[in-house]
Specification:
The protein is mostly helical. It is built from 14 helices and 5 strands. It folds into 2 domains: 1-46 and 227-340, no CATH class; 58-225, no CATH class.
């Protein structure tokens, strides 16, 4: 692997301020209140990428999309998540209308209305959260991602507490979440557990909510007990796509996303992360950095399924993707595998 200090130096010279922010804050551990970080955040706020993400606001400041705030990837939900990942500055009142959209959508009455169901068919007979075999069948990645983004951006403190409460209420006995309505499903889903874990962890750090931290730590065991990508019963790879690197992940999962989650909980050095870290190191390019092996978006200015306003570096077997590279450096530094 190329000297990480050389990679860091190159990324700190990036024209994209969001890449520089990722390195300063997540790899080098600079305080977000530091003047140089604040200066980079101001560049991010004024960047062409952020202007594109916020380009469809109406006269009230809300994001206009085709159907709901969850429209992939142009709804208000995904816009806030992207801004949080980019390092957009905290506490910007201009985002309050977008935050309102997101919290209103994910805290609507249906998410407090639960009902028992015996079969998969029963679960679709009414609105609300079905409870099958004693487990809430809920796509908790949605509330989890909203909690993560709102907290990162310093928005909607009352809403974040309510989102955290919903996630804890729906948590499964093994520590995670799953929306699978098959009555036989009794294990949490990686895709539905990663974002709630990350959301609860940042909420706990910001608010001192001990119950949220306990819930996040329980969720971490869903991944750690499986080495971040293997089945427990036979040690086989759970899903080959977990070994492919992506950016952004949106609601999906791969080992890099799992390692970032562990880093945020201070668990990247746990021995059970070792094999995933080995795989990540093996993916390094000969010329330095890491490539994105696949993507979940298409770049389009028009609205439509999986259309994003911006390009996140594309996919290539040989070309470095700076977003993936910055995240890989973050994970390896948190695990003690590189010295910067």
């Amino acid at each position: 692997m190329t000297d990480p200090r050389l990679l860091i130096s190159q990324l700190l010279s990036s024209e994209d301020p969001a890449i520089r922010w990722r390195i300063l804050v997540r790899v080098l551990g600079e305080e977000q209140r530091a003047p140089k970080v604040r200066a980079v955040e101001d560049e991010i706020r004024r960047s062409a990428r952020v202007r594109a993400l916020l380009s469809r606001r109406d006269a009230t400041g809300r994001i206009v999309s085709q159907r709901t705030p969850y429209d992939k990837w142009q709804g208000a939900h995904w816009i806030l998540a992207a801004l949080a990942d980019l390092g957009y500055p905290e506490g910007d009142d201009a985002l309050a209308p977008v935050a309102d959209q997101v919290q209103e959508f994910w805290l609507q009455r249906a998410f407090f209305d639960e009902f028992p169901a015996l079969t998969q068919k029963d679960a679709y007979q009414r609105r609300g959260v079905p409870v099958i075999q004693g487990r809430h069948r809920r796509c908790a990645s949605q509330q989890g991602n909203a909690l993560r983004a709102l907290t990162h951006l310093g928005l909607a403190a009352n809403a974040t507490a309510r989102l955290a409460e919903r996630l804890r209420h729906w948590q499964w006995p093994d520590g995670g979440w799953n929306c699978d309505k098959n009555p036989d499903a009794d294990s949490s889903s990686f895709m539905e557990t990663l974002l709630p874990m990350r959301g609860l962890a940042i909420h706990a750090a910001a608010s001192g909510d001990a119950l949220a931290w306990e819930a996040a730590r329980r969720a971490a065991e869903v991944f750690l007990s499986r080495g971040l990508f293997r089945r427990r019963r036979d040690h086989a790879v759970m899903d080959r796509s977990f070994l492919v690197l992506h950016c952004p992940l949106y609601w999906h999962y791969d080992i890099l996303g799992g390692l970032i989650g562990m880093a945020e909980l201070g668990l990247a050095a746990d021995p059970r992360c070792s094999e995933a870290l080995d795989v990540l190191e093996s993916r390094a390019l000969a010329l330095g950095g890491w490539a994105a092996g696949a993507r979940y978006y298409r770049v389009a200015s028009a609205q439509g399924a999986n259309a994003d306003y911006v390009d996140w570096g594309g996919v290539s077997k040989r070309r470095r993707n700076d977003w993936v590279t910055a995240d890989a450096l973050h994970a390896l530094r948190a695990a003690g595998r590189i010295d910067v």
